[in-house]
């Protein structure tokens, strides 16, 4: 994706249309740009899940998403300018900045955004059960 021209990027436009990502905003995570920066960074790094997919498109900077594999071990995913990730509803994850301490990201949603994070353990939610079922099916 062309992060320098995200407003007019036809590939991003097609992804948004195909996936029905009707809502978006841009967040900058930096100590001078994000209110309550220290608190937010700690919250992002706390292992949690969401009941909806989490879609992030990195416009500037870099950071890491950590997710759990089928054996519950961490996998670190390095994200930098131009990268997009979709974390499925129900997956445990966390986010942290790298040594640059800066990222500007587009947040995309299907419909109205829901920001609620459920810290681990949150295994009783239907989204978590569905995710675990899909994970088990893919393992076979």
From TrEMBL:
Main location, first listed in the record: membrane
HAMAP family: Salvage_MtnD_euk
Tree of life domain: Eukaryota
Membrane topology: Peripheral membrane protein
Any one GO molecular-function label of the UniProt entry: acireductone dioxygenase [iron(II)-requiring] activity
One GO CC term, this protein: nucleus
PANTHER family assigned: ACIREDUCTONE DIOXYGENASE (PTHR23418:SF0)
Organism: Loxia leucoptera (White-winged crossbill)
Record's subcellular location: Cell membrane; Nucleus
Chemical reaction(s) catalysed: 1,2-dihydroxy-5-(methylsulfanyl)pent-1-en-3-one + O2 = 4-methylsulfanyl-2-oxobutanoate + formate + 2 H(+)
Cofactors, names only: Ni(2+); Fe(2+)
Enzyme's top EC category: oxidoreductase
Entry's EC annotation: 1.13.11.54
Keywords per UniProt: Amino-acid biosynthesis, Cytoplasm, Dioxygenase, Iron, Metal-binding, Methionine biosynthesis, Nickel, Nucleus, Oxidoreductase
Protein name: acireductone dioxygenase (Fe(2+)-requiring)
A single GO BP: L-methionine salvage from methylthioadenosine
Cited InterPro entries: ARD, ARD_euk, RmlC-like_jellyroll, RmlC_Cupin_sf
